[in-house]
Design brief:
CATH architecture of the largest domain: Distorted Sandwich
Number of domains: 2
Largest sheet: 8 strands, antiparallel
CATH topology of the largest domain: Protein Yojf, Chain: A
Number of strands: 13
Helix content: 10-25%
Number of helices: 4
Structural class: alpha+beta
Shape: elongated
Order of helices and strands: EHEEEEEEEHEEEHEHE
Distance between the termini: 25 Å
Radius of gyration: 27 Å
């Protein structure tokens, strides 16, 4: 189901919203495109002067104000917000109120270019792969990707300066600190690993503690710095495994 109004008057816009959205606000997505200004008062205070924007009111009460550029909304209200609509002095006024934390947002339209109301059905679960935790899991399941004889002893070992991704021992029973990065290794990653190794040296009897920075790509500059500190690196590719959208289960055919 989708209902659309193009270039409605302010009064027609309000009647359209009341007819197709207000009576079932928890079931419909409302999209407004038009010339508006936004006044927000809550954890901070902001005012956005007139401009053409997209305003979305979602089924859970979330309100988003988007400009024609950038990914993030310029203003927004969280889920659970209550939204009302009125015509005041020839302007369409949207008011959104959230209780905890207390937040209020007013969007005033002096011209509405388009309104769309739709009922969307979406029960799919988001599958995310390629995170640092996926790389850590892969190393745990196959420590030989680091080196033969590597033995993982603890995940997320807490030390004074933070949390080590993996604490291991090599085939010679030397402690190994492994820091995992899901993208390109950086200079800051080297310093982080160096501090973790220093912390572990204070907690173990062995004089030697190895540190390995693990990432899909380690630039030459980072390799040079690691070598200067007596640290190591491993370039391990992330395996991104998501469900095959073409693979059907038996229930899909029933």
């Amino acid at each position: 189901m989708i209902e659309v109004a193009v270039n409605p008057s302010v009064d027609d816009a309000l009647r359209f919203i009341e007819r197709f959205h207000v009576k079932q606000a928890d079931k419909t997505l409302l999209v407004l495109v038009g010339d508006c200004m936004v006044d927000y008062r809550g954890r901070a205070r902001s005012f956005l002067d007139w401009g053409e924007r997209v305003v979305m009111v979602k089924q859970d009460g979330t309100v988003l104000v988007h400009r024609s550029t950038l990914r993030e909304p310029v203003n927004w209200q969280p889920s659970g917000s209550k939204t009302t609509f009125k015509v005041e002095k020839g302007l369409l006024v949207l008011r959104s109120h959230h209780v905890k934390p207390a937040e209020r947002m007013k969007v005033v339209f002096r011209e509405v270019l388009l309104i769309a109301v739709s009922i969307l059905f979406d029960s799919a679960q988001l599958a995310i792969s390629g995170m640092e935790s996926d790389m850590v899991n892969e190393i745990i399941s196959n420590p030989d990707v680091i080196e033969e004889g590597c033995r993982v002893c603890k995940r997320e070992k807490h030390v004074k300066s933070g949390v080590i991704d993996l604490f291991c021992y090599d085939k010679n029973h030397v402690p190994v600190v492994i820091e995992v990065k899901r993208s390109v290794a950086t200079i800051s990653s080297v310093h982080q690993l160096r501090v973790y190794v220093s912390d572990v040296k204070k907690d173990v009897e062995e004089a030697r503690v190895r540190g390995i920075l693990c990432a899909p790509r380690v630039p030459d500059m980072v390799k040079k710095l690691l070598s200067e500190y007596g640290l190591e690196w491993r370039e391990v590719e992330r395996r991104v495994v998501l469900p095959d959208e073409f693979q059907k289960s038996l229930k899909d055919f029933l």
